[in-house]
Amino acid sequence: MSIKIGMIGAGGIAQNHVKALARIENARIATVFDINPEQAAKVANATGATIATSAERLLDDKEIDAVLICSPQFARGQLEEIAAGNNLHLLVEKPLGLNMEDVTRKGRAIRESGVINSTGYCLRYLDTVQMAKQYLHGKQVHLVQVHRFGTRHPAKWWNQLDLSGGFLVDAVTHQVDLVRYLVSEFNEVYANFGRNTILQESPDSTIYDGGALSFTLANGAVGTLTESCVSPYYNGSEIKIFGPDFYLSLRANGTQITIIDNDQNITKITKMDAYYEQDKSFVEAIVSGDSTHVLSNYEDASKTLVVTLAANQSFIERKSMSLIETTYG
């Protein structure tokens, strides 16, 4: 069975999916749409896909089985709901959106449709992350320290807080998601952000150049997260997880794991392609009708978005935000 996939959005992150899907024997990109015709043509030339004249026309194509939504988070409108209504399986890139009411509504439509659905939290599929999850099962964690530093996306929209959500919502969401996946759900978050460098380099930009969060988790652990998108001389990430009888670290977006305890001091670097593993699981779920191996569906991913949006709101309101009563759907 060959799965025909439509792709909405053909920018940088979509190119990762193009390369991954090219390695999956029973899947192919059949049609593509991007508001930039050159980007759509690039995917079409690489895959043999036809170019749709609009996202809506692509979603109305009776020949496709599934859709990848890779358009920016501010530009998705009702695409997910239309896809679910047309019985199209869908993979939606992170972050899911910028408004929880919209995301909750979309999630309800997806759930009620019964379609296979996945999201762009590809790091969960790495063997290093799975190794961490297995090791941490049943272990007591009391402290989590997270950081991610890098540089800004070149797109103008990314530098506007109301369009991207900022570095935390758009990129550091991967680290927030791994804390949820490996340790515990978030209980409370308090955030501070700054705009020192951004104001000098890009006066029209509204995103933050650095952030510092403190948080508590539902399992009783506490933690901190620091991030900056104005770090040209150091680019990297790490999640440090401390317990009374162990230390575990995930570096470089989860691709390197270190575990230290009384019996071992090991470091492993993965050779996996996270996008390939994620897309393969999505395709296999469609073929089999079994989504067991989809590690982050739309409902789960919405819980990660709740945390990052709450952090942004915490800074606006200058208070700690409780996530205990935040529910999905």
UniProtKB/TrEMBL annotation:
One of its GO terms (molecular function) is nucleotide binding. Transmembrane segments: none annotated. Signal peptide: none annotated. Residues 141-243 form the GFO/IDH/MocA-like oxidoreductase domain. Residues 3-120 form the Gfo/Idh/MocA-like oxidoreductase N-terminal domain. InterPro entries: Gfo/Idh/MocA-like_OxRdtase_N, Gfo/Idh/MocA_Oxidoreductase, GFO_IDH_MocA-like_dom, NAD(P)-bd_dom_sf. SUPFAM superfamilies: Glyceraldehyde-3-phosphate dehydrogenase-like, C-terminal domain (SSF55347), NAD(P)-binding Rossmann-fold domains (SSF51735). This is Gfo/Idh/MocA family oxidoreductase. It comes from Paenibacillus agaridevorans. The lineage of its organism: Bacteria, Bacillati, Bacillota, Bacilli, Bacillales.
